[in-house]
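Journal club prep, shared notes

We agreed each person brings one worked example of a sequence with its structure written out as tokens. Mine is glutathione transferase. I'm keeping it raw so we can talk through how to read the token line rather than staring at a rendered picture. Sequence first:
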Amino acid sequence: MKPITVWLTPPGPNPWKVVVIIKELGIPFEIHSFKFEDVKKPPFIDINPNGRVPAIVDPNTGLTLWESGAIIQYLIEEYDKEHKLSYDTLREKHLLNQWLHFQMSGQGPYYGQCAWFNVLHTEKIPSAINRYKGEIHRLLGVLNTALTGKIWLVGDKCTFADLAFLPWNEQLQALLDVPREEVLAAYPNVLAWHTRLRERESWGKVLEMREGLMAEQALEWNGMPKGVNNMKEYEELLARGKDA
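Then the structure, token by token:
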């Protein structure tokens, strides 16, 4: 099997949803890491006209695909024939897709907006910050209820649905300015679930890869170059580079 190429910029959580599932399934892959300022430029814009990471190129099937949820569904359908991270029964198949859609439509967008308004946006807008912090807590409440009396979201094993939530929940401290364990203390079922996910060997290896790629580009925890605190400063840095 030829390796799948994963195109990504290292800071954001979405690419790592794909990578951790690839690692879990034992699929050969290689990472094409590039800078955030190049997401709207060739060659990446030729792969994903939306200019968002991740995207994959699979030489085994000739398919180029973007949108992390679509990539995950493809990887499961094409490469999880033994159902290591999935089920082949009707009920479980659709419940897994339900949770993946919830992650894509709920967790990702709301956590992302909180990251923008609370971390990256130059102007601090309390109403926006409070709204998206509140949505994070609402979503954690949904997960906490769903996990009552359960180890995993669906069935009796870790699946792609569980793993899809892992990278964004890993960012809770950065988003809310509160230690992750302190945030999750109010959601004990989520805390136990997230702890189980964090302890998986695949995630440890993913974090090592991410840290290496972040260091390679000299990036801070928030994805900005060292010494840059928000998007305005980042844009000014890029402008100075063009003028130099």
